[in-house]
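Quick one: structure tokens for this chain, please?
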Amino acid sequence: MFGGMSTDAFAVVADSTRRRILTALLERERSVGELVGALELSQPTVSKHLKVLRDSGFVASRSAAQQRIYRLDRTPFAELDTWLGPFRQKWNRHLDALERHLDQSLEPDDE
């Protein structure tokens, strides 16, 4: 579990519709109506997924007139990034070793 979130962050981002919503919110904050139009999904579908994203902390909302405007919240992404860090380091070390090996094997012989 991540930093007090009630839902496993990986389960939240495993859903392709939620990933599409998160990607749309990368550009800028949006209302539900804008997300419905951009993603070509029904309003109930978008609202259902926004509730999951909001409850898990991935998005936050504010009221503007009669609309709710949604934006990304960085906290769960930072927590995911922290969790992925050791895996990234492991693979970077392997890729660096491979790069060194390839560089050495491509060097001309001094003989």
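The longest strand covers residues 59-64.
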